[in-house]
Amino acid sequence: MPHTSVPSATHAERPPRNPVWHWAWASLLLLGACSAHTRLAPPMQAPEATGATALAWELTTRATDLLESDPQLAYLLLAEAEKQAPSSPQVESAVRRLAARPPCAVLRGHTDDVSMAAFSPSGDLILTASTDGTARLFEARSGTWLKVLGGAGPIRSAGFSPDGSFIITTPLNLDRADVWETETGEEVGLLGEQKSFEELMVAGFSPIRGHIVTGSASGAVVFYDDWGREQARHHEHTRRVTALAFDPLDRWVATGSADGTVHLWSTYSGDHSVSVSGHPSPPRMLASSHDGQRLLTASADGVVRLVDVDSGKILMDLRGTAPSARWADFSPDDRLVLSAGRDGVAHLWEADSGKLLLDLGGHSGALEQAIFSPDGKRVATAGEDGLVRVWDPSTGALLLELRGHSAPVNTLAFSPDGQRLLSASKDGTARLCTLSEPRPSWRGELGHVSAVAISPDKRKLAVGSADGLVRVLEPGPGGTQVELRGHLGRVESLQFSLDGQRILSTGEDLTARVWETLTGREVSTLRGHAKSLSFAAFFPDGTRVLTASRDETLLVWDVQSGQTTKTLKGFLYGYTTPALSPDGRYVLLPILWANAGSVLRWETLTWTSLEPLKGHVGALHAVAFSPDGQYIVSTGVDNTARLWNTSTGQQLSVLGCGPGGAVQASFSPDGKRLLILGTRETADFWDVASGQRMYPLRTSALSAPVWPVLVQAGTFSPDGRLALTSTHDTASVWDTTSGAALFQADAQGLGVQWSSFSADGRELILVTNDGVVLRQDCPVCGSMEELLSRLGQTLARQLTCQERTLYLHETRDCAGETRE
User: Fold this and answer.
1) Which range among 349-358, 632-641, 719-728 has the greatest average pLDDT?
2) What share of the chain has pLDDT > 70, as a percent?
3) pLDDT reading at 659 higher than 60
4) How far apart are CA 407 and CA 69, in angstroms?
5) CB environment 87-125: b (16+ within 10 A), e (fewer)
């Protein structure tokens, strides 16, 4: 049997009332003592099989490599892998890792820089344009390629008409714009050809009537009706037109020029309306407020200017930190202004006062664009670093970071419903991502919470408070609530009976109380301890209760009579939380001081004292039984966890703790794995049979450290496929097959006091530090069928002939298939 030797720890003082802090810090002094003895389980190996199983492994491996770069193809390969090897843990692990990411489809086909991407007004189609000389149409639901609109050269810009029936493209270095019919993909008109022989710089449809306005390299602004007939031509600009913006109400259009001027024109007649001066450098882009009363200009001098449309007067200058302002836009309610520049920072301003509200940073290169979602509740930024970031504009919090582009991002676009985000990149692709941010489905306000317990069926919560009140509730819409009143002062602990019919509570009034769950009737009050109670638990049959107190006694009570039936005393040097075996046959008591490192044991049929469990050096943190009661795990300040045989007391293995120590441990539902929580942002999965560490978990991967005093012992999902750890900041979900960090719950900035999976394992239940109960969807939870179905709603398409040949090794003739 392996044994770990560590330096002994001596203590000269009695423990404080709550010694956990003391041992948490003491354990830090012993970090690394056991790391040399840690055995790490070998990485997941390919199954030794041929045929379907081998193909499933190959598909899973390929899909894992594609999780970030091409989530849609990864989904398709995993769906095929599931068909080849149903119920494969490796396939399921990869599916959950995919489900942890925002589902993104990669729109391929272009062979060069994708200069823009946009949704049709209905949101059903996506238009992309590229310097490869083509514009392409895709189905927005799946990202499936539909049509290619051939051009005469690299395309500078493109856009839909107001009703989506037509598309306009502006080729680079040519004197024309092309108009296409969306449904057929046929070219139906040319604008400007053989009239000016001047390169067109910008072109667009007016937002209601669909008239077309173009701006050229000479500064000419030309108006066309909806038949493509020229209506008006103006030469107020003396240099190239650099920007174009329409009033959403279709009353005017603004043009900006390299000559530093901005002009406003009537979209109805094409007549000149207002001139705006005062730009020392060319405006790079223009944006109208949604009421059409104000105009934003972003210039190369780094200044965003707010202009009054009626007078052309500059109302204010918004000076950010960038030497050049590349983008500016109004929020949907026109209350905020968003700007972005070369320093990689987006700024949020108050539109009326010009007050700087927030800086949205984090990008490592210049920003190309920053946009509001249609409802104004999100902001997306992107630029030279290839990252797309999604923010909460009310707080400045980063909501999502979307990776996958291998080159700078040129443009962004939200779908009309705001649920999808489109990005176009110099890497030759566009990416369509669904922004399904999990939100609490239910919220309950309870005030200060001092103790929490969940029923065995995970359908009811018992929540205690400092005023002695215990609430029993069903966390969810329409759930019932029962109040248990009787304690005088703080409720210290809560537990449900095995059948969930009764609740056991302890309080600082030195009593334990038994209640009926449904009615709230008090069954009995257990009085007898001289000091506060530190532990209370039902025996499996629910007729007896075990309590432990800081008066250094353990008492066994008959629930019906409220009388003690057994007293164990004389533990003069303190102990931590006892443990009762699942069958009620054994009681464990970890010792703190005298005989530190020992776990006292009793057999409860005769209350015979058994040989203590000895091996730890120094005090113990905690002990726990496996679900079947055959094993015991103990953790101590010597930074080891130890596994014991329950009936014999034999030490089976010493589980090295790694750099984070070993503070708390819990078994998986099948008893085959252990989740051990450490003291320095660590948690580990261990294999019980071999005593080997399977996967080290680093909670810094989810930005939340695990500390022994601030974390509940990790818990597993009902099927054992997932694990949940919680800290004072958040709750995190882990894959138990791979050890991957999957999901971090949204505690709404309130911190997490307690967390659990719901009864069906599909949701998380959180109790925050402020006494708020949250029920939240978990996107990585649920069955394989549910996860694949959910992913298929946004990522489904058919594997192409070439893909089936490449990945599934099918023999096919793909000569007739266009590779897009």
Assistant:
1) 349-358
2) 88
3) no
4) 12
5) ebebbbbbbbbbbbbbbbbbbbbbeebbbbbbbbeebeb
Query: Does position 43 have pLDDT exceeding 60, yes or no?
Result: no
Tokens, residue 421? 């985000």
Q: Is 144 exposed, middle or buried (0-12, 13-18, 19+ CB in 10 A)?
A: middle
For all residues of the chain together, what is the average pLDDT?
Answer: 86
Two tokens, residue 405: 């582009």
Q: Among 343, 369, 342, which Cα is nearest to 425's?
A: 369
| DSSP secondary structure, 131-199, as one string | TTSEEEEEETTT--EEEEEE-SS-EEEEEE-TTSSEEEEEETT-S-EEEEETTT--EEEEESTTTT---
Q: What is the pLDDT of residues 683-730, one digit of tens each?
A: 788 999 998 888 777 554 444 333 333 344 578 999 999 999 887 777
Q: Residue 78's closest CA among 59, 65, 50?
A: 59
Quick check: helix, strand or coil at residue 461?
A: strand
Please, how many CA atoms are within 13 Å of residue 453, restricted to the half-sphere of its CB? 24
Cα–Cα distance for residue pair 597/602, rounded to 1 Å = 17
Token pair of 132 as six digits: 């490869």
What pLDDT does 816 receive?
66
Burial of residue 556, with CB atoms counted within 10 A of its CB: 0-12 exposed, 13-18 middle, 19 or more buried: middle
Closest CA to 693 of 33, 88, 43, 1: 43
- Report the distance separating Cα 61 and Cα 410, nearest Å: 32
Instruction: Estimate the crossing angle of helix 89-99 against helix 52-66, to 10 degrees.
Output: 20
Confidence of residue 459 (pLDDT cuts 50, 70, 90): very high
- 816: number of Cβ within 10 Å: 6
Maximum Cα–Cα distance for the chain, whole Å? Answer: 106
Query: Among 17-26, 124-133, 426-435, which stretch is predicted with the lowest mean pLDDT?
Result: 17-26
Q: Tokens 């309950």, residue?
A: 444
Closest CA to 698 of 732, 666, 672: 732
Q: Categorise residue 576: left if φ over 0, alpha if ψ from -120 to 50, beta otherwise.
A: beta
Asked if 555 contacts 567 with a C-beta cutoff of 8 angstroms, the reply is yes
What the block records as the tokens of 222 is 């030309």
CB 107, CB 431: distance < 8 Å: yes
pTM for the model: 0.79
pLDDT tens figures, 94-116: 999 999 888 899 999 999 999 99
